[in-house]
Write a structure and sequence with these properties.
Layout lengths: L1 E7 L9 E6 L8 E4 L4 E7 L8 E3 L23 E6 L5 E6 L4 H6 L4 E6 L8 E10 L14 H4 L8 E4 L7 E3 L4 E8 L6 E5 L5 E5 L2 E6 L5 E4 L4 E7 L7 E6 L7 E8 L30 E9 L23 E3 L4 E2 L10 E3 L4 E8 L5 E5 L4 E6 L2 E2 L5 E2 L1 E4 L4 E7 L4 E7 L2 H5 E2 L1 E6 L1
Parallel strand pairs: 1-4, 3-8, 9-12, 11-19, 20-24, 23-33
Antiparallel strand pairs: 1-2, 4-6, 5-7, 7-8, 9-10, 12-17, 13-16, 13-18, 14-15, 14-17, 18-19, 20-21, 22-32, 24-30, 25-29, 25-31, 26-27, 26-28, 26-30, 31-33
Length: 435
Amino acid sequence: MTATPGLWPLVGEGEAETAVWCYDNRVPGPEIRVRQGEPVRIVVENKLDEATTVHWHGIRLPNAMDGVPGLTQPPIKPGEKFVYAFTPPDAGTFWYHPHADSLRQLGRGLAGALIVEEPETIPVDRDILWMIADWRLKPDAQIAGGFGNAMEAAMSGRVGNTVTLNGAVSNGVAVHAGERIRLRLVNSALARIMALRFEGHRPAVIAIDGQPCETHEPVGGRILLGPAMRVDILIDMRGEPGRRYRVVDDFYDGLAYWLTELAYDSNPPLRKHSSDAPLSLPRNPLPEPNLDTAEHHVLKLQGGMMGGNGMMGMGMMGVGMSHGAIWAINGMSMTGDGQADMPPLLTLQRGRSYRLTIRNDTAWWHPMHLHGHSFRVLRRNGKAVPHHQWADTVLVSPHEAVDIAFVADNPGDWMFHCHITDHQASGLMVVLRVT
């Protein structure tokens, strides 16, 4: 796989092509499908004019394959190659992206999906990927500059003005009445949080961040997706042949838009009666944390505008990310891509269970991602989270406290950071060490 500059028709065929950075000359990068428990070897060549890496987001892999420059591997310099080799233990929907100059490299298009298929075929009519990305484009369809704006970084991050589905603005997705679809949703945006509603349909969530959960309908029918999060849903296509049904993102008040439409062909339904049998996925081999003996730590997210702790006061408005931190976790900040000599915030004993309370003391949302592990999401503000949900990225709303638990079974230095990329680059990132 090659990281390279390229051109891609983001806004549609016949329109101006956008200058992007991409994998194998396409946006998103190639959809890589592998099998659970089978070895994977991917050679990444860098044809950019700056160093890069690839992070295999959500995969529980060896630390040396995690793609964090300086911390887990040397950066891949221009003209060089790096071999990533690992055996994915979990089936599910994962993705890949750089962890070097993340804000610009991801924001210019470097992202793709890595799907680990179950050993047994799942009984659906189609298995479809929707990789959703968010871009800030100028009127000529070119990507606007201004990456790393300190004011944006202190608030909601770089939210764009154009949303694409699988690399293009979507006018519709062809569907057939009566079919059952497994739809894999991936939010690869820098900062845009999404809440998707499927008009006229009742999607059922079957996996979160690649990890199976109890099959359930989302609260209010809206599927909440922070940056880097994935949700697998099951949809029975019960619409009328020939009709179109909108998929609407209405997360931001007053700024709802439709992402695409489910466009039914005019053929009669595939089957007379759609199946009401709930589909559930086989569990992955995740170690269950022992909540009775788990060691507890509180991680306080701090900083940003209106944070109340003075970290981002008016005196810092002109400070660029490379010169100062805007965010912190328990008073500790790692900026940019991270530093190899950064002391760990926590040192965890290998094989031990841990319960972390992520307390958001800021006025902004944060999708918090832990490398190398998946974790149980236990409680939000003391209230139990249903459906036995696991994740690797948990969306924490302003002033909310979320309890997670996991077994620290993967040795190494692992990043824990916000996946609103501006927040990560400006300090909302630390190291957790497993020894």
